[in-house]
Structure formats: structure tokens, C-alpha cells
Amino acid sequence: MPRSKPSQNPDLMTFTGFALPTSNTTYTPNQFFDVCLPHHSRGVVRLVGYMIRKTLGWCDAHGHPQNETVAFSYDDLEQYAGVSHSMTRLALDQATQGGFIRCVKEGQASGRAVPGASSVYELAWDESGEYVKDPKRFRGFFAGEGNRTYIPNQFFDRLLPNESLAVIQVVGTVVRFSIGFQNKYGHRRQQVALSYRDIQRYAKIASPSVLAKALREASAKQYIQRVEEGYFDPNAGRLSRAAHYAVKWAPLSHGSSSTLKSVAEEMPFKNHSEKQSGSTPKSVAGDHTEKRSGIQIKQANNTLKQQPAVAQTFERLKAEGFDVRSAEAIANRYPTERIERQLRLIDRRGVKANRLGMLRTAIEQDWGDPTPDRRGFADLRQRKFEPTDRGKGFADALEATRQKLRDARSH
To answer: How would DSSP label each residue in 226-264?
Structure first.
């Protein structure tokens, strides 16, 4: 089935987010994100993404790819993959050397009485059974079951041919560590806590300024959204927290929100479970041309207005100074009793800077009552420290005691 030509200027079209991944998806090998995106040029990324889309984005009624090999001309790559005519040969050579594709039949130029023929390529598959992330050892995509994710076709049709490599890498990182992973209950993440360093480490973006610009562009064009602000605590980083990013999904209808059925919120660089359900490219079931994913979508029925206690806590958090998005995220994530307790205790904590940062951390970690037991301070005042006190922490212990006395007086 022919593909429509992707828009070469997405800013001229309104993009409100990716279509929900219940259909119109490409069952993409995760190694495209793990190996290709972080380690190769934009030309290779666009070329390999085009091949994946052409091969795995269309299937017959039995789930077989309609095209296991892809014949294309330089003009095809320029129009549909966004690879310039002058860079096509280099991208083809690098993608072949990198183990992502292989040439099935060399093309030939047209001549007298000899019609030209396009080169024929196919994705390279690794039958060894090992999932390889090392680009030096990569010899083809994992051919066993699993280790793939249903990616909205707009990622390939709109984003890859038009955006810079940094924007593609940023969006790809958020996609990989959100819907690219599922928890032990089989549910997909919707959002993920990612710091600049997390994204930089995975995407291999060396320049912080390039990364910051790519994040701004990806958010402005509604590919991703920041659901929680990050904060850097200059005081030894105790209150620092990573920003939370999510794939931006298009509204389901008239402003109603939709979410992936997901309960996993663990950090991506800790222990996690890869999706192992699925099949090789030759056995994915389907009953029409576009692939359907198995991802479930549900309406966000439990709004703040439908939960009076949560709504009240949400208003109190806003009154403390949180923006609407952060207040809603905290109110929905943590027990109301915990939040209300920390709101009552925050004035007792002697906050000297970043009140909201301390309040958020107190809620997340469920801090105890800071009120001291005054009966113990008489002993602290009478206690004398001699130079012979054991331990290397004498100075620290003395300063800690003095601080406790000062805090007690302030209360």
C-alpha cells in the first residue's frame, strides 16, 4: 500500500500530540532506540527508521509483513525518509556497516536500451538469540520474540523526516523509557522521571545547550510534555529531583484526557522488565493493513472534581505556591492524609530557602514530626564534650547539638 508523503514543514500543521497507540503503529525493535539513535548520524537514523516503517508498519490478514524487502530509489529516500540526495550513499553504507540493513540486489543506472533499477534492501536480523546493545557487536535486530514496542506511525512519518537528530533522540528517549517498558503486571508506563543527565547519557548528546534546546523544541511541538518540574538543590542536592516527561498524546475528544493503562513509575536506569510478549515479524497477528497494538487505553475518569478530598488538597497545594500541573500530580499520587499532615508541619521545619522543594520532598518521603522532645534538651545543655571524646565526628556532633539547641529555641 502506498504511503503518503510526510509533511516537510510540520510547523505549518497543527500537531496536538501522537495518536493513541491502539492502531496505526509500527512494531518496532527496541534496538532502534538502544543502538541506532544514540550512536549514528541523522541520515542513518532516518534511513533505518524508513526501512522499519516500510517493513513492519504494514501487514496482511495473517500478520505477515507485506514487504520483507524494500526497493527504493534515491528520490524515495529524499522524499519520504528525509535523506538528502547527496547523503544517501553515505547513509546506506553506514547503515549496512552498522548491521541494520543489508543489500539484496544492487541497483543499476539507466543506459541506452537498458532501464534503470532501484537497489533492493531488507532489515538485517540476528538469529543468535542475544539482545545486543553494543554498537560494535551489533549484527542485526533481535529476531526472537519480544523486545519490541508499538510506536505510533507519526514518529516515523512526521518526526524522523523533519526534525533534528537531537530532537529525535530526546523524543526517542522518552518513548523508550515510558511506553517502551512495562511492569511485572503487564502495564505500560505513561511517564518517566528523567533528568538532563539521564537523557544525555542515553541519547549521547554531548552538549547541555543542545539538549536544552532539543527539549524545548520537542515540548513546543507537542511531541513530549513535562508533567512535573525538576529542581536542583544547591545545598548538597538533598532536595534535588528529576523532571518528569511523558509522550504527548492527542486528546481523545473535546478536551478530554486519555492515559495509557500504566502503574509503573520506577526510574528507567534501575531494574526493569522488558516486554517479552509479541512475536517475530512473520507471526504478528493482524486483520487489516495497519498494525494494531495490544496497548489498552482508558479514560481518566477519576478527576479532581469527582474526588472532593483530593480536590480540596489540590487547592491547598496551589495556595502554597505549586503550579496547577504540579499540584494535580502531587494530589493524585500521594494519600490525602499524608499531604495534609505535611502541610500542617511545614511551618515547624524552619525552612530558610525553597519552601516548596522541602514540602514536596517531605510529602514524597513522608517525613516525621519535626517538633523536638524538649525533655531531652536539658541533658544536651548540660553535656560537656572533652577533647578526648572518641570518634572522628566530634566537631560534627558538637555542631549538630548546637543546631538542635538553636532549633529548640526557635520553637
So the answer is: EEE--B--TTTTTT-B--EEEE-BPPSBTTB-EEES---
For 153-175, the pLDDT digits (tens) are 999 999 999 999 999 999 999 99
Report which DSSP code applies to 354. Answer: -
- CA-based diameter of the chain, in Å? 107
Backbone phi, psi, residue 280, to 5°: -70, 165
C-alpha cell at 284: 504478528
Ordered alpha helix ranges (H), 80-195: 88-97, 153-154, 160-162, 165-177
- For strands 69-72 and 258-260, give the pairing: unpaired
- C-alpha span between 335 and 351 (Å, rounded): 23
Question: And the C-alpha cell for 348?
Answer: 515547624
Q: How far apart are CA 244 and CA 374, in angstroms?
A: 41
Per-residue pLDDT band for 61 (boundaries 50, 70, 90) equals low
Query: What value does the CA radius of gyration of the chain take, rounded to a whole number of Å?
Result: 27
What are 299's strand-pairing partners?
Answer: 258
Phi and psi at residue 154, in whole multiples of 5°? -60, -25
In the chain, DSSP finds a helix count (H) and a strand count (E) of: 16, 12
Q: Is 405 helix (H, G, I), strand (E, B) or coil?
A: helix
* Cβ neighbours of 149 (radius 10 Å): 27
**Pairing state between β 297-299 and 224-228:** unpaired
What distance in Å separates the CA atoms of residue 42 and residue 279, rounded to the nearest whole number?
29
Strand partners, 264: none
Among 261, 228, 247, 274, smallest CA distance to 178 is for: 247
Say whether pTM exceeds 0.90: no
Q: How far apart are CA 247 and CA 249, in angstroms?
A: 6
- Between CA 95 and CA 40 the distance in angstroms is 9
Pairwise CA distance, residues 151 & 238, whole Å: 37
Task: Give dist(CA 24, CA 57) in Å, integer.
Answer: 8
Residue (of 176, 106, 101) closest to 138 by Cα position: 101
DSSP string of 336-365, one letter each residue: HHHHHHHHHHGGGG---S-HHHHHHHHHHH
Q: Pairing state of beta strands 224-228 and 244-247?
A: antiparallel
Distance of CA 232 to the CA centre of its chain: 20
